Amino acid sequence: MLQYGPLKTEVVLQPVSGKALPVLRGEVLRIIQEEGEQCVDFNAFNLHDYKEFLGVSNTRSRNAFRVKKGDIIWTVSSRDRPMFLILEISETCRTDLLGGRCRASLFDRRGYGLHTNCQDTLAAAIGEYDLTPDDAHDSLNLWMNTEWDSVGRYFTLRNTGRKGDYVDLLATIDTLSVPATCGSGDVGWTSNFSLKPIRVQVFDASDETLARVEEIERHNTGFKGQRTPDEFKVNKIKADRELRRNPNYVPEFVNYPITTKRIQIPLSTEELAKTNQLLEAGLGKDVAEVIRIGVILWYMRNREPGRRFR
Amino acid sequence: MGRVEAYATRQVKKLGGQGWQIRVHQMASKFIEVTFNQQQYVVIERLKTEGQFGRTDEEIVRNIFLEFLRQEGV
């Protein structure tokens, strides 16, 4: 386990509340189960540019439907940078990247009237930094024991969190981190039909945590597409709400138009027969496509750096 | 003897990094025209730089595809 710096901040979030906390590069955010069985919704923003925030779908597509120890939490796809590293996570903390966040209308529809919910809790917490409810985003959900079946149905099972469980997130950029006690748990298995507090701590950066951040930066930054606003064709944040067409705008699509190159490949009778086996197995619609797919698949399996190929 | 490849003629050719070899060869049964877009072609260019699978587009695509067949156990 890495040696963290000294404890810098500690708060207990009573049900149902949240807190926006600056967690700077190299600092560690620890979220602790005060009593156990409480789902935690988590939002985060680049402290210096709120348009860059925690990208749930980006994190999901880069890792899995759940994140685990050692996984990187990424910012949104327009920036695509590492935001946190999961340094530690209790075995009983199931994570969820599918559920988004609960909102009031879900509960009113079910007959509970105005009920606590994560959209409103997160919105209330980020208001301290002049962010609006529209800026609350889909959550990285901690201690949220969800499952799905083969046809995509999604459901919540009993919360498995235990008292004292914790998650340690190492910030790899300066963040505004926003943990919130989920408000849905008193009327469902999300928090086993009761609402409990959570404890949040922030530890200062140390030489070890900063060294880990640098290692992450070395391996995960500098790629095409990890853009800053300076590189955006449109980079001024729109101040009004109405959308109006800009008649002078000309889009610049990447590698557009798509062009092709034809290559003649000689195959012997035997090679053609082997290719036809793959054609019949459904690898492509014709022999040329089988060859093209075969070449790209070979590259993916044998040459792509860092590719997890199944 | 060098690798057996499907070229239409007998030829003596210098292969990248492998010295002179005699390519002896059965007649190509068929030429297949394979299309790559500019993004897929990046792969061929990268493999060309490696030199391990040939120097021309045709050599790269053919040799990589044969290697793919081998890995697939076909």
Overview of this protein structure:
- Chain A has 6 helices and 15 strands.
- With 310 residues, chain A is an alpha+beta fold.
- In chain A, the strands form 3 sheets. In chain A, strands 1-14-3-12-7-6 form a 6-stranded antiparallel sheet. In chain A, strands 2, 4, 5, 8, 9 and 13 form a 6-stranded antiparallel sheet that branches.
- With 74 residues, chain B is an alpha+beta fold.
- Chain B is built from 2 helices and 3 strands, in the order E-E-E-H-H.
- Chain B has helices at residues 38-50, 57-72, and strands spanning 11-15, 19-23, 30-37.
- Classes of the chains: A alpha+beta (310), B alpha+beta (74).
- The interface between A and B is medium-sized, with 31 and 37 residues.
- Strand 15 (260-267) of chain A pairs antiparallel with strand 3 (30-37) of chain B, so a sheet runs across the interface.
Distance between the termini of chain A: 31 Å
Low-confidence stretches of chain B: 1-12, 17-25
The overall pLDDT average of chain B reads 77
Number of helices of chain A: 6
Helix and strand content put the structural class of chain A at alpha+beta
Number of DSSP-assigned strands of chain A: 15
Helix content of chain A: 10-25%
Which structural category do the helix and sheet elements of chain B fall into? alpha+beta
